[in-house]
Amino acid sequence: MEENPGSVKTDFIREKVARDVESGKFGKEVTTRFPPEPNGYLHIGHVKAICVDFGVAEEFGGVCHLRMDDTNPTKEDTEYVDSIQEDIHWLGFDWGSHFYYASDYFDRMYDCAVELIKRGKAYVCALTPEEWKEYCGDLFKPGANPPGRDNSIEENLDLFARMRKGEFADGERTLRAKIDMASPNIHMRDPVIYRVRHTSHFRQGDKWCVYPMYDFAHCLEDAFEGVTHSLCTLEFEIHRPLYDWVLQSLDWKNPPEQTEFSRLNLTYTVMSKRKLLQLVKEGYVAGWDDPRMPTICGLRRRGYTPSSLRKFAQAVGVTKFNSVTDAALLEYCVREELNATAPRFMAVLDPLKVVIENYPEGKTEWMEAVNNPEDASAGTRLVPFGREIYIERSDFMENPPKKFFRLQVGGEVRLRYTYIIKCERVIKDAGGNIVELRCTYDPATRGGSTPDGRKVKGTIHYVACREAKKGEARLYDRLFNVENPGADGVDFLTQLNPDSLTVRECYIEPELAKCAVGTSVQFERIGYFVADRDATADRPVFNRTVTLKDSWAKLQE
C-alpha cells in the first residue's frame, strides 16, 4: 500500500491505543473494524472513518476488519457490497482475510438474545411505536414500566420463539432489553434489540423474519471478531452505555471498547445516504458516480486521487468536537497534488478563430512545450502551430479596460511556446458578433525570443486549427449553492446549483486526445481535468476536477 502522504499526526485515539498497547490491556494485536451498512455508496465522510480505522490498525501493527453491517434487509444489496470493497481498495487499504458479514452471526446473535431473556434482562413487548411513546417519557420526564415488562422468563422465551417462527406481523412484537425506564439516557430506557420483519435478506433469503437492531448487533459483532478498539463517530457516544451493557450482561471477558470521534461535515455537501439516494433516483444527478456527488466513486471520476483524499482526511484531523470543514480544503488538497504531477496541455473551450495573415499558408511548425514546470523529469512534447489558430474568446476584448494584458486591436500578446502576435482587425458577422481576428506575427520572437528587447505582458494559449482535435469538456462545479444544504428545514433540492455542470465542445492539441481514461491533466490557464470513460474514438471527454484557483473564495469576497 502507498504510504500516507505527509507525517502522521497524533490524536487522542492514537494516544489511547498507544497506552493500551504499552500496558498490554487486550493481550493481543490492535484490531479495529470498518462496518458500513451496504445500503448505499461510500462518500467523502467515510474517507475519514476509513483512514482512522485502517490507519490506526496499520500504524500499530494490527489489523482492520471490513464488515458489512447487513442487519436491515429492506435496503441492502450486493451492488453496494461490491462498491464498498472497490472504494476501500482504491483508497489504498486492504483487510486481507478479514472480510465479514453481520448476517453470518445471526444464529449467535439470536442465541445471545435468548440468553438475555433467560437472565431476566430482555422481554417481548406488544406495544406499537405509537403506544410506546406513552411509556418512554422524554428528556424531562422518566418513563414508566410498560405492560409485559414483568412477564415470566418462560413466557418471553415462548413469545420470542414464536416471533422467529413468523407468527407475528411486522411491528406486532419486539424484543426489548430490560434496563431502566427512568434512565436519563433515553437510549437506555428498554431499547428494542430485535424486531419482526418479513423481508427476504439478500444473503440469508427467507431464513429469518426477526432481525437484530444495530445497537445490539454491533457490539456483539465486535466481540465475536475480537475487536479491541471500536472506533465510531460522535453520534454513537450516547449509545456507548448500551454497547457496554449488552457485553457486560453476557459476562463477556475482555470486551472491546468503543471510542468516538467527530464525523466529517463538508460545506456545500449533503452526507445523508437517504438524500444521496434521492438525488440518484429522481435524476438530479447521473448515478452514484456522477462527478458532482460526494461519493468516493464520484470523486474518483471527478479526478480526485487516493492520496489527495487521504491527505485531506489527515488535514481535517481527529477530534471530539463537531465542526464543518470548508470544501475549499478538499479542493486545495487535490489541486496541490495535481500541480506537482499532472502534465500540461493546451485546450480551448470557447474558441475564437485567429488568422495570422503574414504566416505562410499550409505551413506547420512544431514547438517544444514543457510537460510540467514543477517536474523536470516529465520532459517535453511538440505542439503544432500554423496560420490559423483558436484562442479563448475571453482572451480578446475590442474595448478593454485598463490593465487588460491579453489581446486587443493594435495590441500584442505572446502565444504560449511560439511567437508574439499583434491584432490588426476584427471580423464580425451581420449581427455585429466577432467571429474572427486578423493578426500578424513577428518571426523573430519564436520560442520566447525578443531580439529588440520589447516587453509583452500577456501570454495566452492556443490550439492550431488544422491539427486540433474536437473534444468535450464537462465543467463540474459544486452541486449546491449554499454552505449548509437543507438547514432550517429548507428543502435541499431547492438549493441545487443550476450551474453545477456546463458542457463545452472544445478544441485540444493532438497529444491530449491520446490520454487514457483516468489520466489527470492540466488545461493550461483553465484548470485540472481527467479523461472520462464516456470518450469515444473520435471524441475524448474530460471532466473538470478543480479550477486553477479557488474561484468560490472570490465569489464570497
Account of the protein in words:
By secondary structure, this protein is of the alpha/beta class. Among the domains are: 106 residues, Glutamyl-tRNA Synthetase, Domain 3 (Glutamyl-tRNA Synthetase, domain 3, Alpha-Beta Complex); 162 residues, Glutamyl-trna Synthetase, Domain 2 (Glutamyl-tRNA Synthetase, domain 2, Orthogonal Bundle); 120 residues, Beta Barrel (Ribosomal Protein L25, Chain P), CATH 2.40.240. It is built from 13 helices and 25 strands. The longest helix has 16 residues. The two termini are 41 Å apart. The relative contact order is 0.10. The N terminus is likely disordered.
Topology:
Elements: H1 12-23, E1 31-34, H2 44-59, E2 63-68, H3 78-91, E3 99-101, H4 106-118, E4 122-125, H5 129-136, H6 153-165, E5 174-177, E6 192-196, E7 210-212, H7 214-225, E8 229-233, H8 240-249, E9 257-261, H9 273-281, H10 296-302, H11 306-316, H12 327-341, E10 344-345, E11 347-348, E12 351-356, E13 364-370, E14 380-386, E15 388-392, E16 412-415, E17 420-428, E18 434-442, E19 459-460, E20 463-464, E21 469-476, E22 501-508, E23 520-523, E24 527-531, E25 541-547, H13 551-556
Parallel strand pairs: 1-2, 2-3, 8-9, 10-23, 12-18, 16-19, 21-25
Antiparallel strand pairs: 4-5, 5-6, 6-7, 11-22, 12-15, 13-14, 15-20, 16-17, 17-18, 21-22, 23-24, 24-25
